[in-house]
């Protein structure tokens, strides 16, 4: 589903965020990326969604190369949903209007069809009764669930989660993780950047550990947590577990 081959990215300030990163993600696989702050995790996700251009290498998603071709980039952005650390909801729109917006503008759905999809998804994430609310009237956990519903409304083949729970109070984290668990059980292809190690161990098929823009270690979840190969990985796990 996803192929990343020798991808490098350097920002104008000289920071080398990614250095020759290569990985693949199978259809219906959930890959969890962990690592210290500044290791390139979020930059990698933004490159997968075309939000950041790469300097070297190639990215192919569902057979479509992510390159300078605008048609390819638009197709990939429609097929890849992304949920950010901040909720990025439009404050002047209701919950329903937030979820409807891309469906009507990008997918060209009628208002009635978009509303039906939105209400189904809001019910799925436990917010079927909040369609008329505004983001400021919701808790952080509820806003993030709206953001997930908005991404799912585009019927993506891949979902990217960039530390989707890190801005939430502890008691709100569980409700967002439960939605992500449901998606994993349903076979959604997912790449998740998270600091929630219990969640990673429970749901992830494979774990990737990054540092300094490189992949240090990659293994199945059980192997990664039980018998990590690299000394740097063992040190990182000893500090956070």
Question: Would you write up a description of this structure?
Answer:
It is a single chain. The chain is of the alpha/beta class and 241 residues long. Helix content is 39%, strand content 24%. It contains nine helices and ten strands. Strands 6-7-8-3-9-10 form a six-stranded mixed beta sheet, with helices on both faces. It has a four-stranded antiparallel beta sheet with strand order 2-1-4-5, covered by helices on one side. Strand 7, helix 6 and strand 8 form a beta-alpha-beta unit. Helix 3 runs parallel beside helix 5. The longest helix is centred in the C-terminal third of the chain and has 16 residues. The radius of gyration is 18 Å and the shape is globular. The two termini are 31 Å apart.
Summary keywords:
about 240 residues, six-stranded mixed beta sheet, 9 helices, about 25% strand, alpha/beta
Topology at a glance:
Blueprint: E1 2-10, E2 16-25, E3 30-34, H1 41-48, E4 56-61, E5 64-65, H2 70-79, E6 80-83, H3 95-105, H4 111-124, H5 140-152, E7 158-162, H6 170-185, E8 189-193, H7 197-203, E9 206-211, E10 214-220, H8 221-226, H9 231-240
Parallel strand pairs: 3-8, 3-9, 6-7, 7-8
Antiparallel strand pairs: 1-2, 1-4, 4-5, 9-10
């Amino acid at each position: 589903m996803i192929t990343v081959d020798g991808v490098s990215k350097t920002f104008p300030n000289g920071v080398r965020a990614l250095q020759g990163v290569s990985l693949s993600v199978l259809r219906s696989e959930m890959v969890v990326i962990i690592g210290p702050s500044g290791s390139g995790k979020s930059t990698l996700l933004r490159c997968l969604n075309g939000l950041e251009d790469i300097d070297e290498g190639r990215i192919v998603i569902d057979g479509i190369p992510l390159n300078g071709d605008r048609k390819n980039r638009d197709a990939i952005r429609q097929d890849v949903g992304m949920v950010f650390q901040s909720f990025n909801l439009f404050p002047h729109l209701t919950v329903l209007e937030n979820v409807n917006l891309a469906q009507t503008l990008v997918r060209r759905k009628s208002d009635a069809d978009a509303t039906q999809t939105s209400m189904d998804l809001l019910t799925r994430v436990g917010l079927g009764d909040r369609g008329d609310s505004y983001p400021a009237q919701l808790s952080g956990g509820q806003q993030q669930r709206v953001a997930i519903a908005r991404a799912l409304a585009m019927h993506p083949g891949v979902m990217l989660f960039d530390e989707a729970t890190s801005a939430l109070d502890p008691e709100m984290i569980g409700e967002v993780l439960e939605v992500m668990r449901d998606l994993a059980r349903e076979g959604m292809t997912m790449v998740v950047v998270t600091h929630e190690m219990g969640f990673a161990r429970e749901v992830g098929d494979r774990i990737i550990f990054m540092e300094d823009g490189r992949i240090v270690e990659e293994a199945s979840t059980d192997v990664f947590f039980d018998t990590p190969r690299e000394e740097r990985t063992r040190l990182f796990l000893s500090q956070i577990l």
